[in-house]
Structures are given as structure tokens and as C-alpha cells.
Design a protein that fits this description.
12 helices; about 300 residues; single chain; Rossmann fold
Length: about 300
Amino acid sequence: MNDSTSQGARSWWQRLSGGLKRTSSSIGAAISDMVMRGPLTPERIDEIEEQLIRADLGVDVSARIAKVIGDGRYHNLAEVQAVLAAEIEKVMAPVAKPLSVDGTKPFVILVVGVNGSGKTTTIGKLAARLHADGKSVMLAAGDTFRAAAIDQLKIWGGRASATVIAREQGADAAGLAYDALNEARGEGIDVLLVDTAGRLQNKAALMDELEKMVRVMKKLDPTAPHAVLLVLDATVGQNALSQVEVFARTAGVTGLAMTKLDGTARGGILVAIAARHKLPIHFIGVGEGIEDLSPFEAKDFARAIAGVE
């Protein structure tokens, strides 16, 4: 690893561990207090389990981790943190999978999620990553319901050197998706990222719109979309679990990106999602900067959640 790569890795680790500080502190402080109070009685193990559940790790995962901690003999917080990190990594490692965009051109990624999840920003950051990797990128402003989303995507397109296909507010999203795929094919674009509306309060209409977008793209390419990326906001905690259920059922989600892990003490929700749904986790975001979206690494995430330095 050269110096610049090493510095980049350190910088990402600093952002990740800093971003998850609220989560690791909420877990670590409570567990440290319990471990330092003497022998881990069954009652104290129950307290540890409750603390893990409060951090949104999920009931099953929390029970298993608490049992492992209870079965061991630990003398300080560092030992407990190491066990916590190892157990979380066991859950996360099977779902830590990079998003490959090779093999099909254009590779079509339909990006879904509720309004406010960071969906449009994630598209922009992903476009920038792809461009840096030498891919040509096109963005389709398929959230035609919100003028702000269209404008935001245009700004991100400029930052990421990506072509943006947009129409006026209220335009037919499916027609836009069709036009964008047609243009991407004609221009030999490597990756087409398609934004979508996120109005979950009107689930039926939203899902009908998503299905129509998929249907018209399949007229041009029967294999499209090649990935359906669900963007989740970590700060919503348990609500993220229900969002996975809704979108997985209706939009055929193939992978996840979680944003705003730096804004919550409930980053453990990603552990609960991994344990329950076992969907690939492609990316996590821990800040507003264009470099703050990174491929998901189970070991790094587990260590950051556990507060391992």
C-alpha cells in the first residue's frame, strides 16, 4: 500500500469511527459500566442485552452478543469491545458485497427510497465515484414530483461530470426513464443511475410508478434495471426495517446503501437489517462530502460500532 492509499484508508477510518461515535459511545459506556461493576450476573447480562436492543441491533443479535459476553471472563472494556466487534462482524460479513457495474452497457441502477433518505445525494456521490473509476455516467431525474430533486440532481451531475436527463416538474417518470435509457444506449454510456420518487405515504401510487418505470425500460433492455439500490437513512432507526420490507416486496431491491450514520446513536439498525433481510450492503455514508460514501466493509463497520480504536 503506497503512502497516499494508506492515508486515504486512515482518513476513511477516521470518518467512519467518528461518524459512528454516537452509536459506539451509547453502547460502550453502558457496557463498560456493567463490566466494571464486578461479576456479570444474569441480571447484568439482561441489562447488556437491553442496551444493545436500544441501540437498534435487533433482539436476536442482541441476545446472542449478550450471551457471548456473559459466557466469557472479561476484565476491561477493550476486551468486551473486541468481542462485540467480532460478533457484529459475523452478522455483517455475509452481506458486505461491492456493487459491480461491469458486464452490461449501460448498467442501469434504479435508486429507490423515501424522501429525505439522502437518495439524490447518494446518486450524486455514487456518480462521482464511478466517474473517478473511469466510467461514463448518466443521471435520470426520475423524481419528477419534486422540483428540488430535479435541481439537486443537476447540481450533482455537474460535480460528477455526468450527463443529466431531466424534464419539467410533473412529467411522466416512466417516459423519462425510457428516454434516458435510449440516450444512454445511443451514447455508449457505461452506467445509468435513475432517481425515483419516494412518497411512501401514498404507497400504491408510488409502487405503480416504479413498476411502470421498470416495464418501459424493459422494452429497450429486457434485463434492465440491473440493480435496484435502496437508500436508507440511519437516523430513522426501526422505520428503516419497515422501509426495507416495503421496497424489497414491491421494487425488487438487490442491495442497500445507508446514509447519515454520523447523525445518530442508532447506527446498529444496519446490523438488525442485515440479520433479518440478508440483502447485500453496498455503501455507507458518514458525512455530506462527496468522498463520504464508501463501499461497505464489515470488519471496519463492526470495529467502529464497537468503539475499537
